[in-house]
């Protein structure tokens, strides 16, 4: 019940009525992005984790996505960019309000969503296949695309969210150290 009251308190100050009798939820849009140099020691299998290290991987961290400790937000868009060409896998981003205990090592088989992480689990974002028209491979998700958003969340504490990035498809031709950037557009409530 405390979670629901927290959401209403947070959202209440951001509700506006229109002349047509429609309630709009407003807030400040912030972008939080994280860039990782992928370890990519060998080819990726489907359902492998994408991370910075094959032996000591870390979660993707999206800083200051809420206005204050224990705040609320709505993820309204997400972008992923992989500085490489000719790679077009589908990718899933699992989101948590604390560092997850699931597998974080690059090129290892994904274990998310673990029972131990359920209390910190927010949701997942499924990116459609990355597109490559001669430049960086990229994809975006919004309310109007496949894998559509919005993802509403309230953090128990802190201002950051954490992620595990997982391939839905096998990938060959990757380069060690190639950078991947994920950007989340969040309306702070």
Structural description of this entry:
By secondary structure, this protein is mainly beta. It has a single domain, classed as Jelly Rolls. It contains 1 helix and 12 strands. The strands form 3 sheets. Strands 3, 6, 9, 10 and 12 form a 5-stranded antiparallel β-sheet that branches. Strands 4, 5, 7, 8 and 11 form a 5-stranded antiparallel β-sheet that branches. It has a two-stranded antiparallel sheet with strand order 1-2. Strand 1 and strand 2 (23-25) form a beta hairpin. The longest helix is centred in the N-terminal third of the chain and has 11 residues, at 2-12. It starts with a helix and ends with a strand.
Compact overview of the structure:
By secondary structure, the chain is mostly beta strands. The protein is built from one helix and twelve strands.
Task: Indicate the topology.
Elements: H1 2-12, E1 15-17, E2 23-25, E3 28-37, E4 49-50, E5 60-62, E6 72-82, E7 91-96, E8 121-127, E9 137-141, E10 151-154, E11 161-167, E12 179-188
Antiparallel strand pairs: 1-2, 3-12, 4-11, 5-11, 6-9, 6-10, 6-12, 7-8, 7-11
Defining key terms:
mainly beta; 5-stranded antiparallel β-sheet; globular
